[in-house]
Amino acid sequence: MISIIVPTYNSAEVLVRLLESIKKQDFADCEVVINDDPRTNDDTENVVTRFLLDGLRVKLLKENRSRAQARNVAAGIATGDCLLILDSDMELGEGLLSECAEMVEQGLEAMVIPEESFGSTFWARCRWFEKKCYEGVEEIEALRFVKAEVFRESGGYTDELIHREDKDLDLRVRQKASRVGRTRSYIYHNEGALRLLDAARKKAYYAETAHLYAARQPEAFGWETNVFNRYFLFVKDPRMVIRHPLLLLGLLVLKTSEFLAAGLVFLRQKIRGHA
């Protein structure tokens, strides 16, 4: 059995698409555990009720204080043998759950699931280009599927982490899991109407706990914050560069803006003595 863990906050619109993608899977032995922020004031509860009445096994909690903490709480009540950890703005590719179940039966304990972004703006298309550049890069990608016992043995998420809490878990799970795999099926990430300023603000918000991640995973943090490592990934495939030169230029602007925003916040934290 697979338990799908989803933290939410005013996510009704995208949550519908996620739950529909779960309903369309050819693997029925699953449950969905949604942990909603108590401040939510949209139609999330009605969405959950509709899918529950439609036969989907779904539980709704109201104990979401942060993304990492919400996932830990949801995992604590999940009854599945395995956990699939998602964001509310994601959708499952066709056959993903069956593929994960088959890989577990073959002895694998955790899986990376590649992501493909989509959205309605130029910057969303730049994010698509970025995710394509990250495919197969272990320093960037993070595990999303893990056996429940391995999740517990690794200690779960670090509640106070916002910056790269998924990679922090990934690195600790890899110390416990003897066999880690990668699916052929994708998760599709809905970037919506992504704007440059919004992306920079989001990175700045995440960077408020970057010093905690740096202390916990100094080697990984050092690699990730070296801008040349990232920029090299963007040009390593000449075919992508030739096919999408405008997206490459846009991505360089996008990532530079995000790096600057996050770097300023991290520098402020360091000056204050927190890092």
3D architecture notes:
There is one protein chain. This protein has helices at residues 12-23, 44-53, 67-77, 96-105, 122-134, 148-154, 165-176, 196-206, 210-216, 218-224, 227-235, 238-243, 245-271; strands spanning 2-8, 30-36, 58-61, 82-85, 90-92, 110-112, 115-119, 145-147, 180-182, 187-192. The chain is of the alpha/beta class and 275 residues long. It has one domain (2-271): Spore Coat Polysaccharide Biosynthesis Protein SpsA, Chain A, CATH 3.90.550. A 7-stranded mixed sheet has the order 3-2-1-4-8-6-9, with helices on both faces. The protein has a 3-stranded mixed sheet with strand order 5-10-7. Helix 1 links the parallel strand 1 and strand 2. Helix 1 (12-23) runs parallel beside helix 2 (44-53) and helix 11 (227-235) runs antiparallel to helix 13. The longest helix is centred in the last third of the chain and has 27 residues, at 245-271. The chain is globular and about 45 Å long. The mean pLDDT is 96.
List the helices and strands and how they pair.
Elements: E1 2-8, H1 12-23, E2 30-36, H2 44-53, E3 58-61, H3 67-77, E4 82-85, E5 90-92, H4 96-105, E6 110-112, E7 115-119, H5 122-134, E8 145-147, H6 148-154, H7 165-176, E9 180-182, E10 187-192, H8 196-206, H9 210-216, H10 218-224, H11 227-235, H12 238-243, H13 245-271
Parallel strand pairs: 1-2, 1-4, 2-3, 6-9, 7-10
Antiparallel strand pairs: 4-8, 5-10, 6-8
Helix pairs in contact: 1-2, 5-13, 6-7, 8-13, 9-10, 11-13
